[in-house]
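In the previous chapter we treated chains in isolation. Here, by contrast, the input contains two separate entities that must be folded as one system, with a combined length of 442 residues.
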Amino acid sequence: MANNISITVNGKTHTGEVEARTLLVDYLREHLSLTGTHIGCDTSSCGACTVHVDGKAVKSCTMLAVQADGCEVTTVEGLSTNGSLHPIQEGFREEHGLQCGFCTPGMMMTATDLLKRNPNPTEHEIREALEGNFCRCTGYHNIVKSIQHAANKMNEATA
Amino acid sequence: MIPTSFDYKKASSVEEALGMLGDDAQILGGGHSLIPALKLRLNAPGTLVDISKIDSLKVIRDNENSITIGAGVTHAEIAASDVLAQHCPMMGQAANAIGDIQVRNRGTIGGSIAHADPAADWPAVLLATDANVIIQGKNGKRTVDIDQFFKGFFETALEEGEIITTISIPKTAFNRNSTYVKFKQPASRFALVGCAAAVEMDGGSVKSARIGLTGVSEYAYRATGVENALAGKALNADTIASAVSGVTDSVDVMSDHYASEKYRSHLAHVFVKRALMNLSYSK
């Protein structure tokens, strides 16, 4: 059965019909061609599909598109503004936070959720926040440094 | 993975949701148990009734003698609740031990207990709190004592066509002095063993104790043998060591490729001991 939904993704409202069984991640990738959000495990474990729904990090492989009707969704494509990188993107570049890059969008979306709740996380708090994001290159050490870089940068900007 | 086709109905009130529930319909809350099951096609309902947008189910209320938690309150919201941290610290500890932040942002307490996974955290915790579960059906509301709620493997007292609306946690001395400890299955982060303990002290001795266990047997249970063995005793390493010996006496301990019966049983002893020792330090 087709359902009419209206979802604001990265500030732009999309209205249209979807099948009820369409997962949010498939809606983003297949309907809106926003392929920055990745499908990794497809079983709510790996976090590659993490996006923000109404400002909170969620796994978009475990949410139906119809459930996001009326919601604000932010994907990795929505992080930069007017062509300038978000501090978290800059952090990943400066600190070599990505190797193959597959987990990177999900890592950045979880990290931005963390920094919103906790602008000065300890290393331990960062590692704990990344519990639901897997990096199979095992590059966690530099991912943590990238997030610390972003935290410092964001705190300087607001100081 | 894509689920089989189903109809989707979004409810804006519990009454409306009850009216939408018919043959072959299931309730969708946060979806963190149901959607994985739909994707694996372990479950293929004809209709999903979405109750996740019902505002009245998303409230934590601080009452005179209880704290009521709407069934649609997420694990993350429970973890962040000051009133629960004050009156029942094991609630926040358990909430933070579930999955990861993304899962905690979507998964709900009502959905978790309705699903009744034998390794879920909330069943053990709610058994220890002496909670009531308020259930609404077409013929009105009923209250189920948590001790009567979990009936078996993925089986509860919830009947067809009913919705859990609220979980009510009493404000008691034992809930104020409570803790949750868990040994996580490292991949799924479900509990291999989870123990919730709540102890009321009277002077130097235990007045009453409630201990809930999950992950050990086919459904969560109270270790009443341990509770009784502690009554009237001081809470220290010796009394705890002697009381925990019967923790798995009343149940069949599960065995699977993650943990043998012997190992799981060992973990149950260790984690009950650890929970009670945590409370002994805090006194």
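The helical segments of chain A are 24-31, 87-94, 104-117, 123-129, 140-158. The beta strands of chain A are 2-9, 12-19, 50-53, 56-59, 72-74. Compare these points with the single-chain example from earlier in the chapter.
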